[in-house]
Design goal:
binds ligand IFG; 7-stranded mixed beta sheet; Chitobiase, domain 2; alpha/beta; TIM Barrel; elongated; 8-stranded parallel β-barrel; about 525 residues
Length: about 525
């Protein structure tokens, strides 16, 4: 047992604290940090934020200042301490928070960070801004849960002292929101982005088109939204993002170090497009708009040249407003596309995506075709496809429906969601290791994981919350923390302590009986 040297000052401090019965945190290892950091070393003292504390950032970069302002915006409503962001060329005087970029920090990569909390100062250091942003998330989790409250809360606002060194295991730590079955306005998407950022997730895949709806304005094919975006599952009015609104979502995500991955599913899951343009149908007749929840009944006409003109126009316009490297082409459940048509279609669509400067991504069904080098394959149901994809040199993103589909019910009592892939309670969603999930696929072939929320049965942000929380932090941890450092029995205690935060953030989370909330 490693004995810890606690200075006389600390002992006196603790005695005083005891008698003054204020809860002053002094053990950094007792904090509920998710994802679990690589290394936490406590020094058994306490640092207190006061109205004299400000946030100093090194240098003049606007990006670092905006991270400082992000922190101030999270702290000021609940603490009332009126944090200001100040730039400095050297370490600030005692009592402040200091964000500093240091390109020479070894071993933490571009998303890692170090935090040093002493009695005198809080310093967050990173090689790149993303690491600073993630250090800020950890700092917020070390503060009491009430720091997340939108209204002024009683202090003191103290932090246990010590050091944290942290960096992610996987580079792709994502979630997917299906905005096609039910449309969600930009503010609901931004809300999910905010929640993902709190747990250091960095990819949001938007499922923008399906049988029931087309959700992104394409200026060269306007009927896609005027007709294809007009409805949704159940028949209510649908909606869509103008290119300006999509750009705003992308910018909002970028400011939180989240890359948006747009998906236009094809050749299947295309009824909204087929209902919008007769010429996209092999028989030259537009289909009717569809508001049910069947899958696998639609296909683009793979033999018509106009289909590829359509796809080129769509991907060209989307590429211009998508700074991220990926365009997702879907490719799933093309049950009415002949295999001999599907295979060349997927090959040709990959060419179109690379011609607009993006990397193709698709559901694992695309492994039936020939995958271009660099194409990313998203495993969801058929392990043979995942093995076939890696056999072609493709990298995988793992979204196994039986573990990571957020539309799976928690149990038979869950009213929302589906259960075709089984029930996914919080422990089941957490207890798996991507590196050993697909037999024959090693960690080297895996970019990371993505939890997917399909919305056939999900209609508003409260219902999104209920299916996403409390499972999302677990996927964030699977993507960030080494599997050798993860166990459900240890994690569930940290998750239970997040319950107060979820409440303070106004998240309508499912109180799983597997967790002591
Ligand atoms: N499978 C379909 C989705 C959705 C889902 C619901 C994929 C890749 C079932 N395709 O998952 O469109 O309907 O759980």
């Amino acid at each position: 047992m490693k004995t810890r040297f606690i200075s006389a000052a600390a002992i006196i401090f603790l005695i005083v604290a005891q008698f003054s019965c204020i809860q002053v945190p002094t053990d950094l290892t007792r904090e509920s940090i998710i994802p679990r950091p690589v290394l936490v070393q406590p020094t058994a003292l306490s640092f207190k934020l006061t109205d004299k504390t400000d946030i100093y950032v090194s240098g003049q970069s606007d990006e670092i200042k905006s991270i400082g302002n992000y922190l101030a915006d999270k702290l000021n409503p609940s603490t009332g301490l009126r944090f200001e962001v100040k730039t400095t060329s050297k370490a600030p005087h005692n009592g402040n928070i200091y964000l500093i970029l240091d390109p020479d920090i070894p071993g933490i990569g571009e998303e890692g960070y170090e935090i040093s909390i002493t009695k005198k100062m809080v310093q967050i250091s990173a090689v790149k801004p993303a690491g600073l942003f993630y250090g800020v998330q950890t700092l917020l989790q070390i503060l009491p849960a009430k720091v997340e409250s939108p209204t002024i809360q009683e202090g003191p606002w103290s932090l246990a002292t010590g050091t944290i060194k942290d960096y992610p295991d996987y580079g792709y730590r994502g979630a997917m929101l299906d905005v096609a079955r039910h449309f969600f306005k930009a503010e609901d998407v931004k809300r999910l982005i905010d929640q993902m950022a709190r747990y250091k997730m960095n990819r949001l895949h938007l499922h923008l088109a399906d049988d029931q709806g087309w959700r992104i304005e394409i200026k060269s094919w306007p009927n896609l939204t005027t007709t294809g975006g007009s409805t949704q599952v159940g028949g209510a009015a649908g909606g869509f993002y103008t290119q300006a609104e999509y750009t705003d979502i992308v910018k909002y995500a970028q400011a939180r170090y989240i890359t948006i991955i747009p998906e236009i599913d094809m050749p299947g899951h295309t009824n909204a497009a087929l209902a919008s343009y007769a010429e996209l149908n092999c028989n030259g007749k537009a289909t009717k708009l569809y508001t049910g929840t069947d899958v696998g009944f639609s296909t683009l006409c793979t033999s018509k040249e106009i289909t590829y003109q359509f796809i080129s126009d769509v991907f060209r316009e989307i590429a211009v407003i998508t700074p991220g490297p990926y365009i997702h082409i879907g490719g799933d459940e093309s049950h009415v596309t002949k295999k001999e048509d599907y295979i060349p279609f997927i090959s040709r669509v990959q060419e179109i995506v690379t011609s607009v400067g993006k990397i193709p991504m698709g559901w694992d069904d695309i492994a039936l075709s020939t995958l271009k080098p660099g194409t990313v394959c998203q495993h969801w149901a058929t392990v043979e496809n995942a093995v076939k994809a890696t056999g072609q040199g493709a990298k995988l993103v793992l979204s196994p429906a039986s573990k990571a589909y957020l539309d799976m019910k928690y149990d038979s009592a869950t009213t929302l969601g589906l259960h075709w892939a089984g029930y996914v309670e919080v422990d089941k969603g957490y207890s798996w290791d991507p590196a050993s999930y697909v037999h024959g696929v090693t960690k080297a072939g895996i970019l990371g994981i993505e939890a997917a929320l399909w919305t056939e049965t999900i209609t508003n942000k409260e219902e999104i919350d209920y299916m996403v929380f409390p499972r999302l932090p677990g996927y964030a941890e699977i993507g960030w923390t080494l599997s050798s450092m993860r166990s459900w029995d240890e994690y569930k205690v940290r998750l239970g302590k997040q319950g107060e935060r979820f409440k303070a953030m106004g998240i309508n989370f499912y109180r799983s009986p597997k967790v002591a909330w």
